[in-house]
Amino acid sequence: MPVVIIVGTQFGDEGKGKVTDYFASNSDLVVRFQGGNNAGHTVVVGEKEFKLHLLPSGIIQNKKSLIGAGVVIDPKVLVQELENIKKINSNPNLIIDPRAHIIMPYHILLDAVHEESRGNKIGTTLRGIGPCYAERSYREGIRFEDLIEESRLREKLKIIFPIKKKVLECSYGKEVDISLEQLVKEYAELGKKLKQYLGDVSLLVQEALDAGKTVLFEGAQGAFLDMDFGTYPFVTSSHPIAGEAFVGTGIGPKQNLKIVGIVKAYTTRVGSGVLVSELHGELADNLRKAGNEFGTTTGRPRRIGWLDLVLLRTAKRFNSLDEIVVTKLDVLSGLDKLKVCVAYELNGKQVKEVPALTSDLEKCKPVLKEFKGFKIADCKSYSDLPKEARDYLEFIEKELKVKISMVGIGAERNKILNK
Ligand code: GDP
Ligand code: IMO
Ligand code: MG
Q1: Residue in 237, 242, 252 with CA at minimum distance from that of residue 216
Q2: Which of 27, 104, 119, 247 could form a disulfide with 216 if both were Cys (CB 3.0 to 4.6 A apart)?
């Protein structure tokens, strides 16, 4: 398939990095199209663990890796990440679109003061993502094309920086201890380091497709963190759903493609917001430990819930999923019994899709179906999985009417079974 889009179907951290790395071996280009360094994508290769925040996961296999216009870039983080990757690959094959927006220090400060002053804390990663996207909409953003040209950067910051400084100091009493000139110097320096990666991602992707090459799109976050279709306001500030692959790259949607949803075998969430199938107490603690469910970006403990088919049916609709990859099945190994949320109870009725009204969603209670537990030992193929594990997976397939193409049974690159 010339185009493959990988998306998270839950609240992020489904294992998109690992699956992207898997698909990357058969792809010519790997593209990030939304989000920023709020993402944390892990790829484990032998003894080595790579945690990527901005670089597309294809970089590990030295695939041409592109950062599209829809991504927000913290240049400090990107420069650091490039330094790290250069330890295994001295010449990373990276392209950055000039239209991508840049996260500036005042965005990070604004993220913190907004979060502090909010009654209902979102639990943001505090990486400046929201304020950077907001300023893109205000048309006050700094883009990659500005970062790499000192005179443009200075001219733009001359106008924008005093406004941000005033807001931070006067409205929030937060001192901004950097001058305009220091800011220009520091960021122009970062721009110099990154300028070599400039390229028109929209054009390059189209040219690659025209030449018969294969393009892999790596989503960040997950469907229910979508700015519009997620559990607003407890969401991120971009669109982690498949449609954004086109908008965030600058190509049209009429493609010969496959859309792959990544599904963790249970549910996790970092930050606030509804989690209908949430577990508490010892069971949640044990699963958190077994799955090492601590944020890749912030280290925060992730909240845990049973697999929620209501979320997944709705994620299928948002994304037009062609197939799913179920990850972390091994984490459920050893439980006597496990449950799946098959519907929500709302006002005495069962609903099978996530209600569009927040006030309805907040009232929903999980309807759970119980399954026999299983133990996963060293399985080499899908048929090696215990019958109870296969029953669990085949129930998911039947309910969602989407085929499972692969199953993850460990963090390591080769711990993935074709179904
Ligand atoms: P992403 O943000 O969707 O890329 O996911 P993260 O990397 O934030 O979180 C997924 C975590 O689970 C990482 O630590 C992965 O190494 C790990 N992982 C991925 N697939 C599997 C799997 O099938 N089993 C286990 N045990 N760990 C996995
Ligand atoms: P990956 O790509 C899990 C969550 C934050 C917070 C909300 C808003 O690794 O799956 P933001 O910093 O974006 O303003 O935070 O979104 N969040 C994620 N949760 N995985 C992610 O990315 C996330 N990116 C943002 O925890 O609740
Ligand atoms: Mg993650």
Answers
A1: 242
A2: 27
Residue 119 confidence (pLDDT): 80
Q: 41 C-alpha to center of ligand 3: Å?
A: 5
308 is catalytic: no
The CB of 124 under 6 Å from ligand 2? The reply is yes
Rounded CA-CA distance 346/361 in Å is: 8
pLDDT for position 18: 97
Rounded to an integer, what distance in angstroms lies between the CA atom of residue 132 and that of residue 70? 11
Is 340 close to ligand 2, i.e. is its CB under 6 Å away?
Answer: no
How much of the chain, in percent, has pLDDT values that exceed 70? 100
The two tokens of residue 54 are: 């901005």
292-301: average pLDDT: 87
* Residue 377, pLDDT score: 87
- 3-state secondary structure (DSSP) of residue 278: strand
Active-site residue, 41 included: yes
Kindly report the pTM of this predicted structure.
0.97
54 lines ligand 2 (CB under 6 A): no
Ligand 1 atom 11 nearest Cα: 15
Given this model, what pLDDT does residue 118 score? 84
Structural domains in the chain, CATH included, are 3-87+201-418 (3.90.170.10), 101-196 (1.10.300.10)
